[in-house]
């Protein structure tokens, strides 16, 4: 038995060129399929991770706005220009607005972040002049807006009740959809 194995190793026969080409082409096809599957899996995993991160950041922004709206409980709500946000005020007992107790919620076009500025806070002692809701992504200008719906009170330019329509387009990366990932979220809050 030992002789048979020893003789098998001593044979000087090899494989033909056709057998070698067939084996190499079959191996290259198998490796190509495996590498394509692995590459597609990593790419899909990354895309889903980025979308989940953007959706979480959108949820943070939406909850920041609704929390500020319900905690502040405004008497008057003014829309800002170009659908960039709104300003909330309380009314004193004699019916006048109290500008020292105003809060502004807006999308900052320069930084692409949501900012909440309160009038009764001394921002000179802070490094950031706004209480910003910082996210890793960026709010896309032109596709994002915060608008008000409802009836203005007695012909004035403020709302006492209505809904705030928030449309956010968030991007993560350097572009808007082509070389960066983007997601759009919409929500409405009543006040």
TrEMBL record:
It is found in: Cell surface. Keywords: Competence, Membrane, Transmembrane, Transmembrane helix. Pfam families: N_methyl (PF07963). InterPro entries: N_methyl_site (IPR012902). One of its GO terms (cellular component) is cell surface. The chain crosses the membrane at residues 20-42. GO terms for biological process: establishment of competence for transformation. This is Prepilin-type N-terminal cleavage/methylation domain-containing protein.
